[in-house]
Amino acid sequence: MRKIKVNEYEVIEDLKNGVFKVLRHGEEWQDLTGNNFVLSLIDLIDNLNKENEAFQKDSEFLNCLICCGVDNWNGWEEAVEMMAEE
To answer: Which residues lie closer than 8 Å to 86 by C-beta, 6 or more apart?
Structure first.
C-alpha cells in the first residue's frame, strides 16, 4: 500500500485489495480505479522520493568529508566514523 499526501488530499493505492482512491480532509473524495495517469504519477513520485533520499545521504556524507578537511582521501576514516554516529 502506498499513501501520498498533498495538502488536504491523500492518495491511497492498494491494488492488491482493489483500493485506489483520494481522501480529502480524511473523507473519501474520489475513486481512482482505472486511472493509469494518476498511477503513473504515483510511481514517478515514489521514484523521485527514493532518488532524493539517496541524494540527501550522499550530500550529508560529502558535507562530513568537507568538515573533516578531506583532501585526496586524507581524513577518510574520520569522516566514515562521523557518518556512522548519525
So the answer is: 60
Residues 77-81: contacts with CB under 8 Å, at least 24 apart: none
In contact, 38 and 32? CB cutoff 8 Å: yes
- Cα 73 from Cα 58, distance rounded (Å): 16
Q: At what angle do helices 36-67 and 76-85 cross, to 10 degrees?
A: 130
**Nine cell digits for residue 21:** 482512491
- Reported as a single tens digit per residue, the pLDDT across 32-56 is 999 999 999 999 999 999 999 989 8
The residue written with cell numbers 562530513 in the block is 64
